[in-house]
Amino acid sequence: MDDLVEFLIARLNDDNHAYAYVAGTLGGEALLDSHLPMLDLIEQLARDYKAMDPSDSRSVGLAYALRVLGQSYTEHPAYLQEWRP
Q: Which Pfam families match (predicted)?
């Protein structure tokens, strides 16, 4: 699961850079307003999972949520099918 969390954080960082480029070159402020907060929240969930004690009752549900969110990157060459929920 740690591999998936690291994968998600890397993809979110890539997406943040891509959105910043779009906004800077094409004036996509509406895109930034709608997507960047969502990316930040997903990154927060990934970081919370990393910091969470495995015995925490929320860890199973959060792991499932991260697997579901990870599916948006199934076309990425580093995505592993074993991460599917």
A: DUF6221
Q: How many domains in the chain?
A: 1
Domain that holds residue 47: 2-83
Closest Cα to residue 43, out of 80, 7, 83? Answer: 7
The secondary structure of 8-69 as a DSSP string is HHHHHHHHHHHHHHHHHHH--HHHHHHHHHHHHHHHHHHHHHHHS-TTSTTHHHHHHHHHHH
Q: Which of 4, 2, 1 is closest to 73 using CA atoms? A: 4
pLDDT in tens, 23-76: 666 555 655 666 778 888 888 999 999 999 989 999 999 999 999 999 999 999
Residue 76's pLDDT is what? 94
The mean per-residue pLDDT over the stretch 76-84 comes to 96
